[in-house]
Write a structure and sequence with these properties.
It is built from ten helices and no strands. The protein is mainly α. This is Regulatory protein RecX.
Length: 245
């Protein structure tokens, strides 16, 4: 329209600048990786630090091969960041990743020296945690420590901190908790509860006594059944496949 002042801006009627009026704005985007002094964009998926695996091949890049000991240390630290591990567990992780036994021993020996690996502390913490959290007895805990490669003497020292009185208290607490929701005849309840304790590693005599005492305090019928049980003479033929209560 004649006499109307043209608007400028970013709208549909914006007037583009004439060539030479203003300097061209620099293009936004990734900096060039070519030429002297160029640096890689850390957010560029195509840029990888030297030594890290290439997505297409799964092999380390060839720009700067990684030292095997460095790779071993990184594997160990990643494992330890998830949860505490024994020396045997870390050795197994290194072997699966192709680390030589010589390098693995060197790295693990150093971690032993500085206290990053401590199987004795691991065993003590494992016994305390698994007994308090899952109610496991010494026999079950010993089996778990053996599966994780803890030396028998080291495991024995940790298990020695869990005495028979503590085991008996934990067994009774487990039975009392299960008994609140138990349904059925006293003999069936008895077998299920003793079976539950057996699966947690409690010796037969201790398990039978714990269930007998709990039943005796439950009802007159259960108490009459419990009076017939001799925990020192009776070892029921428990089915290991019985479902836990």
């Amino acid at each position: 329209m004649a006499g109307r002042r043209a608007r400028s801006g970013r709208g549909w009627d914006a007037i583009p600048p004439r060539t030479g009026d203003t300097p061209a704005r620099p293009r936004r985007g990734r900096p060039s990786r070519s030429g002297p002094g160029a640096t890689a964009d850390p957010f560029d998926e195509g840029a990888r630090p030297a030594g890290f695996p290439d997505d297409s091949t799964g092999e380390p890049s060839r720009a700067e091969p990684r030292d095997e000991a460095e790779a071993a240390r990184e594997i160990c630290l990643r494992q330890l960041a998830v949860r505490p591990c024994t020396r045997a567990e870390l050795a197994g992780a290194l072997a699966r990743r192709g680390i030589s036994s010589e390098v693995a021993a060197e790295v693990l020996d150093r971690y032993d020296e500085v206290g990053i690996i401590d199987d004795a502390a691991f065993a003590r913490a494992w016994v305390s945690s698994r007994h308090a959290g899952r109610g496991l007895a010494r026999r079950a805990l010993a089996n778990e420590l053996r599966q994780r490669g803890v030396d028998g003497e080291v495991a024995g020292a940790a298990l020695g901190e869990l005495d028979e009185a503590t085991e008996a208290e934990t067994a009774r607490a487990l039975v009392d908790r299960k008994l609140r929701s138990a349904r059925g005849e006293p003999d069936a309840i008895f077998r299920r509860l003793v079976g539950m304790l057996a699966r947690k590693g409690y010796p037969p005599g201790l398990a039978i006594r714990a269930v007998k005492d709990a039943l005796a305090a439950r009802s007159a019928e259960a108490a009459e059944f419990a009076d017939q049980i001799d925990p020192d003479a009776l070892t029921p033929d428990l089915d290991p496949d019985l479902p836990s209560m």
